[in-house]
Amino acid sequence: MRILIVEDYAPLRRSTALGLREAGYAVDETGDGEEGCWYATSNPYDVIVLDLMLPKLDGLSILKKLRAGGSSAHVLVLTARDALEDRVQGLNLGADDYLVKPFAFDELLARVRALTRRAYQNKNPLITVGDLEVNTAAKEVKRGGVRIDLTAREYALLEFLAARAGQLVTRADLWEHCYDFQAEAQSNVIDVYIGYLRRKLEKPGQSKLIQTRRGQGYVLEAVG
């Protein structure tokens, strides 16, 4: 899943971005309101973590532009402890949740996870596809009850496929939601990682889970 952080206090922004990357998310970050607005309106983020007090363009103005443009990205607003009016206004303008600063990273992570589940109409953190289990809270994967160790990138791709189980997911979808601007675009990188996933998920004697739709993309589903 891909996340944008718009926060002008650099130590907080960097530590939050680092923690989210370690949790397996693709993260873009900026401390500039105008740049944040460009990021937010130009890319399909699953969650946007948005501070309200920003240079050049404030967070409420960014939120207005997002919703006026029809964006459905889930927005988690960061506010000061005594800014009740800002929290109310943010929610009225279309924010999905808010978090009061200072906050514990674990709480922010839990809220981000809840918002990503909401984005794909799945309130249950456990996604089941046949005998495959993807626990989006614990970032744990099992097949037939046996735990499967995945890299952060492999897990990110699988979680996105699992969130849309039974649906066609194009390579462009996977790139846009699982890679940030720091990633170098390579024509076959998605195919390579899908290959890694298949080798770990589909052992001899087990049915295939990741189906290829030639020229279109992939579908995660239990067949047979």
Short description:
By secondary structure, the chain is of the alpha/beta class.
CATH class of the largest domain: Alpha Beta
Annotation, overall tally of beta strands: 12
Any guess at the CATH architecture of the largest domain?
Answer: 3-Layer(aba) Sandwich
Helicity level, as a percent range? 40-55%
**What is the fold named in CATH at topology level of the largest domain?**
Rossmann fold
**Spatial order of strands in the largest sheet:** 2-1-3-4-5
Mean pLDDT: 88
Instruction: Assign the CATH superfamily of the largest domain.
Output: Response regulator
Main beta sheet: strand number and arrangement?
Answer: 5 strands, parallel
- List the domain count as a whole number: 2
Give the overall form: elongated
The number of helical runs is 8
Contiguous uncertain segments of 5+ residues: none
Proportion of beta-strand residues: 15-25%
Structural class, by secondary structure, is alpha/beta
Give the topology string: H per helix, E per strand: EHEHEHEHEHEEEEHEHHEE
> What is the CA–CA distance across the termini?
29 Å
**Cα-atom radius of gyration:** 18 Å
Which features would summarize this protein structure in a list?
2 domains, 224 residues, Rossmann fold, 8 helices, Arc Repressor Mutant, subunit A, five-stranded parallel β-sheet, alpha/beta, four-stranded antiparallel β-sheet
Summarize the structure in words.
- This protein has 224 residues and is α/β, with parallel strands linked by helices.
- The protein has two domains: 2-119, Rossmann fold, CATH 3.40.50.2300; 126-220, Winged helix-like DNA-binding domain superfamily/Winged helix DNA-binding domain (Arc Repressor Mutant, subunit A, Orthogonal Bundle).
- It has eight helices and twelve strands.
- The chain has helices at 10-22, 33-42, 59-68, 84-92, 105-119, 152-163, 171-178, 189-201; strands at residues 2-6, 26-30, 47-51, 74-80, 97-101, 126-129, 132-135, 140-143, 146-148, 169-170, 210-213, 217-220.
- Strands 2-1-3-4-5 form a five-stranded parallel sheet, with helices on both faces. A four-stranded antiparallel sheet has the order 6-7-8-9, covered by helices on one side. Strands 10-12-11 form a three-stranded antiparallel sheet.
- Helix 2 packs parallel to helix 3 (59-68) and helix 6 (152-163) packs across helix 8.
- The longest helix has 15 residues, at 105-119.
- It is elongated.
- The model has no long low-confidence stretch (mean pLDDT 88).
